[in-house]
Design goal:
By secondary structure, this protein is mostly helical. The protein is built from 7 helices and no strands. It is elongated and about 60 Å long. The protein starts with 5 loop residues before the first helix and ends with a helix.
Length: 200
């Protein structure tokens, strides 16, 4: 009993509605000389972003692809499970990158902002690992139960998408925002996020 599962579609819709690593950087660039130490800090964080952004984007694409018609629940389960694992790994790697970069120099409340960003990213990583466990536990032999389980996961995923968008934004304020906006790797992520927003 394969057939279309409308909840798969809902899961895909949630994914497409939730941006990946939306940086508060698009269209923002500063021409000032800035702070060389802060620029070095920003480069360290920004250089970690493209690979993880690509990983999250690929995971989102896989979830959308799995929601196609006539995809058996077991296939959906397998794809979604791997996608959530990849998202968990990506946010965990970002948390490590921000942790490793240390406190952004010369920034008010820099230490608190850095710690909060690490904490938020780590929580996201743990939450996506939790979604993987949830999807792994679904009964693929019972279409109705599987649909109900996916419904719950779609709801949780919607909440995670929102928190993902705010995880880095508090860190990306003022001088930090300008320093990050000037990094080639952050520009790359911001432009790919904006391209996704246009096509989704």
């Amino acid at each position: 009993m394969e057939g279309t599962n409308p909840v798969n579609k809902k899961l895909a819709a949630v994914v497409s509605g939730g941006a990946v690593l939306v940086l508060a950087l698009s269209g923002c660039s500063s021409d000032d000389d800035g702070n060389k130490e802060l620029d070095a800090w920003a480069k360290q964080v920004c250089d970690a972003l493209p690979a993880q952004d690509a990983k999250v984007d690929a995971a989102n694409a896989a979830i959308k692809q799995a929601a196609t018609d006539n995809n058996a629940p077991a296939n959906v389960q397998k794809t979604d499970s791997q996608a959530f694992q990849d998202m968990s790994d990506a946010y965990g790697a970002l948390a490590q990158a921000v942790q490793k970069a240390g406190t952004p120099p010369g920034v008010d409340d820099g230490e608190k902002k850095q710690k909060d960003a690490v904490s938020a990213l780590t929580t996201l990583s743990t939450s996506y690992a939790g979604l993987k466990k949830q999807v792994d536990a679904l009964d693929t032999k019972d279409q109705a139960k599987f649909a109900d389980g996916l419904q719950d996961i779609a709801t949780d995923l919607g909440e995670l998408s929102k928190s993902g968008n705010t995880a880095l934004k508090n860190l990306e304020q003022g001088d930090v925002k300008n320093a990050m906006a000037n990094q080639a790797s952050c520009k790359k992520v911001a432009s790919s996020a904006s391209a996704r927003a246009t096509t989704s």
